[in-house]
Design brief:
The chain has three helices and 45 strands. It is mainly beta and 597 residues long. The strands form twelve sheets. The protein has a five-stranded mixed β-sheet with strand order 22-27-26-24-23. It has a four-stranded antiparallel β-sheet with strand order 1-31-30-29, with no helix packed on it. Strand 18 and strand 19 form a beta hairpin. It is globular, with a radius of gyration of 25 Å.
Length: 597
């Protein structure tokens, strides 16, 4: 009976949307296609091989790298200067470098701060070589040979030995970014470990020699099990990182029957705190299904969720983002077709726990057509509403400005590592609001072989007027809790220098009292409360119900100056909202925490 009700609800929703196109314009806002000339995106009439979006020069605005495919022209680098783009390809020396390529074809590009100096360098691949270009004040120098970022020619008579940069991550958690590369006609992956001086291929010692992933051209990083170290996936193979050694976990996590995918991504579509998996159709002759796999306590199961995606087109990318700021991640799918519009899938929770995805592109102004290669979300004008950029052979570029008619609130974060890698790739950011609600974002460097989009952490929160807390798990493991976070703005967050100490030394004593937000919050059944004392004090830490009833005394006595961490297990209490209060002779503060069962 319940299944029938769910099916009826989904059918009703689909019929309503089919008949009421205007509703989308009113509720979801509208995208305006920007004339590329008016924003400085110069004419680029060449076949594209992908794109990368990042803040190349560190000015707080997201820039664009548009990669050419063939030797007929040259790639473009556009710096974003307060919403207007400036083509710096010539003065950056990149055009001169690219003209010296041995082979015409480009394959992939990723912008990354490999040397942790605060600006974005260029890693890219071609038909016969890998390239690494160091950024010095927006002028790029080829350091591939110097840094030993070099691939090998496969054995045998092979005309092309195409490389693809699979992405960057700190797989060994030593504070700098390493790179995985796949290669056609080669049974092995490359895993270039970065030791700060040069790169060493450690694929064999990391378990990636002759691994199943090597059969597929495109490899990406994510944290499948959200345990803090980056894992690998590609095609239909999943490799878990266990202390720097990779093992095939495809069958054990539920993907044994998954057919090969062209594009795929891990993201939390249902906001339950883990990463789910979306797969687009595979190569010709394989599965043509769009599949959403739900993470259910670490095991993935194919959902019965209805994705109203038109059954046409050749996909040329996959990007997720909350375009209307309602708190749910949506999906953008650019198409590599000359006469078909792109697809924007709206994530709609029609009733609590029941969702559908609808293609709303044509209803909200997304009407681009052309031979596109890559596209995704990013906020080019820093207004907190995700815009869309696509490359195009016929039309050079498409830039869609989100007019934000839905007026949903938002909050964003620009992360900077200190002990962790400077780009803070591998961070997990969790946002808590309205008690039981939460969202997560995992930062990665490279979506797939032709896409690198939206480098900042962005959350939509609908019409909420505040957030309870934000927890940043930095790549090297330190967890930072942010409270009193102002909404509708981007926050630059720098990783605290003290990332592994449990107590503050005498020479680094706090200068004032401070009571942190408990972590995790919400919690079940245990949480941790941290506070700081500038000098020795008599301390009392108590827990109260919402009615003011005293339910626990966690501390009552003298304590030394410094940081103190108190573990609180509420397993004996009823679920609900509680308050904890820190009291000393000179200080008193009360904070709220939420216990869920």
């Amino acid at each position: 009976m319940l299944l029938k009700i769910r099916i009826i609800l989904l059918m009703i929703t689909f019929l309503q949307i089919s008949k009421m196109n205007l509703l989308f314009c009113q509720d979801l806002g509208w995208y305006e296609q920007i004339s590329i000339a008016t924003v400085g995106l110069t004419y680029a009439p060449f076949d594209k091989a992908g794109l990368a979006i990042a803040d190349i020069d560190g000015n707080g605005w997201q820039d664009i790298f548009c990669l050419r495919e063939n030797v007929d022209s040259y790639s473009r680098i556009y710096l974003n200067e307060y919403g207007l783009f400036r083509d710096i390809t010539g003065q950056s020396l990149f055009r001169q470098f690219e003209q010296g390529f041995e082979k015409a074809e480009n394959q992939s590009v990723i912008l990354v701060d490999y040397d942790n100096d605060g600006d974005k360098d260029i890693s890219m691949s071609g038909g016969s070589a890998l390239y690494l270009l160091r950024n010095d004040n927006n002028r790029f120098t080829d350091v591939s040979q110097k840094m030993k970022f070099i691939g090998k020619k496969p054995e045998g008579i092979i005309a092309d030995w195409i490389y693809n940069v699979g992405g960057w991550a700190d797989y060994d958690l030593d504070g700098d970014l390493d790179c995985v590369v796949s290669q056609e006609n080669n049974p092995n992956l490359y895993l270039f470990r970065n030791d700060g001086v040069c790169f060493t291929d450690v694929a064999a010692e990391a378990g990636l020699d002759s691994c199943p992933l090597a059969e597929y051209q495109y490899v990406s990083w994510t944290d499948i099990d959200v345990d803090g170290d980056p894992d690998l996936f590609g095609g239909n193979v999943f490799m878990d990182n266990a202390n720097g050694y990779f093992r095939d976990v495809t069958d054990s996590i539920g993907f044994g029957e998954l057919e090969e995918a062209t594009f795929s991504e891990f993201f939390d579509y249902d906001n339950d705190g883990d990463l789910d998996f979306l797969k687009l159709p595979g190569p010709p002759g394989g599965s043509d299904a769009v599949e959403l796999w739900e993470n259910r306590n670490g095991f993935y199961e194919l959902t019965e969720l209805i994705l109203f995606i038109p059954e046409y087109g050749s996909y040329s990318g996959l990007s997720t983002g909350d375009f209307e700021n309602d708190g749910d991640l949506d999906i953008f799918l650019p198409l590599n077709e000359s006469n078909l519009p792109d697809i924007l899938m709206y994530n709609d929770e029609i009733i609590a726990g029941e969702r559908v995805f609808h293609d709303v592109a044509e209803f909200i102004g997304i009407a681009s057509q052309g031979d596109q290669k890559g596209g995704g979300f990013f906020d080019y004008d820093n207004d907190g509403y995700l815009d869309i950029y696509c490359t195009s052979t016929e039309f050079s570029h498409f830039l869609y400005h989100n007019l934000a008619l839905s007026m949903g609130n938002w909050v964003g974060f620009i992360l900077e590592g200190t002990r962790s890698n400077r780009d803070a790739m591998g961070s997990l950011v969790t946002l808590y609001y309205t008690g039981e609600r939460r969202q997560i974002r995992y930062t990665s460097c490279g979506n797939d072989f032709i896409n690198q989009d939206n480098p900042w952490v962005h959350f939509g929160i609908g019409f909420e007027l505040s957030v309870d807390s934000v927890v940043v798990r930095w790549p090297l493991g330190y967890k930072q809790v942010l409270t009193d976070v102002e909404i509708n703005r981007y926050h630059k967050i720098k990783e605290p220098e003290l990332t592994t100490v449990d107590a503050i030394s005498n020479e680094l004593l706090p200068c004032d009292f401070k009571l942190e937000q408990n972590y995790p919050n919400p919690f079940n059944p245990a949480t941790e409360i941290v506070y700081y004392l500038p000098n020795r004090q008599h301390v009392r830490l108590e827990v109260f119900s919402t009615l003011g009833q005293h339910v626990a005394t966690l501390v009552d006595g003298e304590q030394s100056a410094g940081e103190h961490k108190i573990h609180f297990n509420a397993g004996y209490l009823a679920a609900g909202v509680y308050f904890y209060r820190l009291t000393t002779d000179a200080f008193s503060q009360l904070k709220k925490m939420i216990y869920l069962k």
